UniProtKB/TrEMBL annotation:
InterPro entries: NAD(P)-bd_dom_sf (IPR036291), Polysac_CapD-like (IPR003869), Polysaccharide_Synthase-Rel (IPR051203). This is FlaA1/EpsC-like NDP-sugar epimerase. Belongs to the polysaccharide synthase family. CDD domains: UDP_invert_4-6DH_SDR_e (cd05237). Gene3D superfamilies: NAD(P)-binding Rossmann-like Domain.
Amino acid sequence: MYAKIDTEMAQFYQDKVVLVTGGTGSIGRKIVRELVNYSPKKIIVFSKDDSKQYLMKQAFKQFHHIYYLIGDIRDYQRIEYVTRGVDYIFHTAALKQVPTCEENPDEAIKTNVLGSINVIEAAIKNNVKKVINISTDKAVNPVNTMGATKLLTEKLFKQANMKLNNNQTKFCSVRFGNVIGSRGSVIPLLYEQLITGKALTITDMNMTRFFMSVEEAVQLTVKAGYYTEGGETYILKMKALKLEDLVKALMEFAKKHQLKKPKVQVIGARPGEKIYEELAFEFELAQIYETEDMYVISNNELPKNKFRKTSLMNYRSDQVNPIQQHEMLMIIEELNQS
C-alpha cells in the first residue's frame, strides 16, 4: 500500500486547483512545496502578509502555476471569491501562539472560529471537493484560548459534512503535535538561545510535548486530503520529548562544539500551558483506526484494505515512547547545519 500511495496521490492531485490558506506560513509554505511534486493545475497561496508573499514568490519563481492572493479569512467576500473553481483547500491560516491568543481572545475567535466558518461556507457555495483543516493537540481537553478555538473549528469542520446546503464538499481535520522548525517551536527556540549565549528559558522540566518534523506534518496533511471521505480526524503516530531531556541534549551539544555551558532559567508554565498534551479525547478512543504511520478517528467504518481498527487507553505525551537523547542530538545538529 505505502509503495504505491505516492503514485496514487500524484494522480489524485494532478491537474487540480489547490488553495492553501495561510500559505506563506511555515506549514502552508511546506505544503505548497510538497504539492508541486504532484503536478496540480494551479496552487493558490492565500495570506494577508504581503512581505512574506513577496519573499515566497522569489523562492518559488521557477513555478509558474503558483498564484499569490492577498486577503484575510475574516473577509467572507474575499475568501468566497478565492475559492471559486478550487478543488481542494488546505486550511492552515490561524492564530497559533498560545500566549498571543490568551492576551487577545477576541482576535483568536475572529480568525480561528469566524474565519474558519467563512472558509466552510465559501467551500460549500463553490462546490469545493475536499477541505482539510489543520488543528493541534491543544484542541483536546483545552485549557487555553488557542486550544478552545481550535476545538470549535474541528467541530465546525465535522458538522459541515452534514449541512443541508452541502452538496459534495468533504471536510476533515488533522491534529498536529509540536512541529519542529515551525515558528515558536521549542527546539529551535532553545537552540537559538544556546547559540547566542543566552540562558535556556524552560517552563517546567517535567513538561512533555508530542513532536513531528515539518516533513511528517506535510505528508500527514497531504495523505488526509487523499483519504478523507468526510468527518475524520487524522493524527500522526508520534514520539514525545521531555524538556529535561532536551536540556541535557543541548548541554551535550554545547560540550561537543565547545560552546559555553548555558545557564538554565526555569520560568514556570505560561498562562494556558499544560504539563502534558493529548491527541485524542477519551470518547474518541473507541473510534480509532490506524495505518503504519497514523491514527484516524472516525464515526464511520473505514475500508479494511487501508485501515485497521485499533484500541488505545490514551494518547498522552507523558505516556508514549520518548525520543532518545541521540535522536534529539541529531535534530539539534540538523538545525546547526541549516
